[in-house]
Amino acid sequence: MVNSHSDGINTLADALDSITEWVSKYTVLPDAYTAPTLALWVAHTHVSTAFYTTPRIVASSPVAGSGKTRLLELIAGVAYMPKQTVNSSTAAIYRRINKALADDGLPPTLLYDEADALFGPRPTPQSEDMRALLNAGYKAGATVDRCEGDSHDVVEFPVFAPVALAGLAGHMPDTITTRAITIEMKKRRRGEKITPYRERTAYAEMAGVREFLTAWSRRAHDDMKTTEATMPHGVEDRPAEVWEPLVIIADAAGGHWPATARDACRSFVFAPEKRPPSTGVELLSDIRKVMGHDPDDDTALVPVDTIRTSELVEKLNKMTESGWRDVDSGRGVSPRFLSRILSGYDVRPVSIRDSLGSGKGYTTGVTYKHGKPFQSGFFDAWGRYLPTPSISEIGDNGDSSDVAGQTPQTLSPFAESVGDTSVTSSATGDKKVTENKPLNSTVTSVTDVTDFSNSGEGKTTEVPHPDDDIVTLIVNAATDAGGSGVGHGVIGKLVREATGDGSRALAVADEMVAAGLLDVDDQNRYYMKETA
Fold first, then answer.
1. Which region, left, alpha or beta, applies to residue 143 given φ > 0 means left and ψ of -120 to 50 means alpha?
2. Which of 150, 280, 319, 375 is most solvent-facing, going by the fewest CB within 10 Å?
3. For every residue of 168-193, which 3-state class applies, written as one string?
4. E strands within 191-293?
């Protein structure tokens, strides 16, 4: 007798709950968010053409026998028109999609097992064609052109379709994983119990759910086309594209599902990066340690603003745990190697002056040539490319405004002033920069140095948060320094000690320069702007 999971399926929420329970019954999943995510993804395959994107599912694991194939089998039991592909050509795939759209108005759900074999370390023309097809098929309207018939008429074949892939970790192209929700599968521990899986029995259990989703998709499809979702705070750009279809479906289901979907979204999007970092990212991370700016290094010395190329090369090659001595065919880190890798992050060697005299080196901040930025410096690269806050650092409501003293991609007080001397006020908050005592230094009121555009006759200018505290810290430091100026390292250290993160310090300082509040010399020391 089949123990049905389809009894009492009257609403979309019922169907999603049933899929969640059913998937969890037959496989061990890495966390509590995976089964609800799979339920939402399965539902989206029944209305996929209502959305602009169709996120990929990637089931990954470091070793075989971790449940990846079982996950694809379970998806096949409830997804719309599942097609498990084995060594299919790209031509067969796009023709299959075209036929399904012509017959039923929806593309099939494509399931690829052992995808790591397809995307091996040595790409072939066939694997590159398949990768291009899977990448393009992520967005609605994508097509491939082929000549057909004796007259060689150009025919457009649509490639938009839901896709789930399974394979060993580390072999999936980044162009696919950045469009995907990656599920890190693990081997089952001794003692972890699941229900023995028999495909015929398991599929029969979900017959009612499949029938409900078929009927629901006909009713809901057009409404889904015009719906937009409010994404969790900090989920933007590509992650927002990936997750919006699932959040829209969760909102339509109601009950606990809107909150469950957003919790799952935050869990996946803000999860710590599990893939090995690229050479460039690893290099940036180690340079941050060498220069004393690593927030997680309690043993760090006083941070430095600049470092000679020769000193940086020597210190990197001495970091035996990072293996820099073995890079570049065993030659180790060299000035040429540094320049080649770091230039991709807009970090370039510049002329510096220190106790040894003049020389070439690197700096944490922006440098200028002929009045224009020449390179962005390490602070900008560290803030952009080193890991973002994990979910454990973000509040239950997803608001990361208290994480490291800033929200992701926040607008600084001077964002509208670059290249101009005016400052556009914002209504994002009622905070005013008045007095703040972040450390033991003498505090200078910002009231006397605001109103850069001369529009308020000495009145306190409202500066939108979260950068107003950073502005106050920089103004105080530059005022205390007087004619000697204040360097990058001091500014970064002050801001990091006061807010928990110094990654925005130099960006705000440079925006203050552009706004006419600070001056900066060729040694990247900041001074209060002299006033008449």
1. beta
2. 150
3. ECCCCCHHHHCCEEEEECCCCCCCCC
4. none
User: What 3-state class would DSSP assign to 158?
Assistant: strand
Cα distance between residue 284 and residue 322, in whole Å: 12
**Mean pLDDT of all residues in the chain?**
80
Tens digit of each residue's pLDDT (9 = 90 or more) over 134-179: 999 999 999 888 888 888 888 899 999 999 999 887 778 888 999 9
pLDDT for residue 59? 94
Distance between CA atoms of residues 323 and 333, nearest Å: 10
Which residues lie closer than 8 Å to 37 by C-beta, 6 or more apart? 181, 183, 246, 261, 264, 268
**pLDDT greater at residue 463 or residue 281:** 281
Q: Is the bond into 389 cis (omega within 30 degrees of 0)?
A: no
Across the chain, which distance is largest between two alpha carbons, in Å? 91
The pLDDT, as a whole number, for residue 404 is 34
Res 72 pLDDT > 70: yes
Alpha-carbon distance 251 to 262, whole Å? 10
User: How open is the CA angle 504-270-28, to the nearest 5 degrees?
Assistant: 165
User: DSSP H helical segments within 372-504, as ranges?
Assistant: 378-385, 468-481, 488-499
β partners of residue 180: 56
pLDDT at residue 73 greater than cutoff 90: yes
As a whole number, mean pLDDT of residues 423-448 equals: 34
- Tokens encoding 71: 């996950």
Distance, C-alpha 420 to centroid of its chain:
31
Residue 476 has pLDDT above 80, yes or no: yes
Query: What per-residue confidence (pLDDT) applies to 180?
Result: 95
Residues composing the chain: 532
Q: Which run of H or of E encompasses 297?
A: none
129 Cβ partners below 8 Å, 6+ apart? 90
| Average pLDDT over every residue of 422-444 | 33
Q: CB neighbours of 417 closer than 8 A, spacing ≥ 6? A: 423, 424, 452, 511, 514, 515
Tell me how far the alpha carbon of residue 74 is from its chain's centroid. Answer: 28
State the Cα–Cα distance between residues 514 and 417, nearest whole angstrom.
7
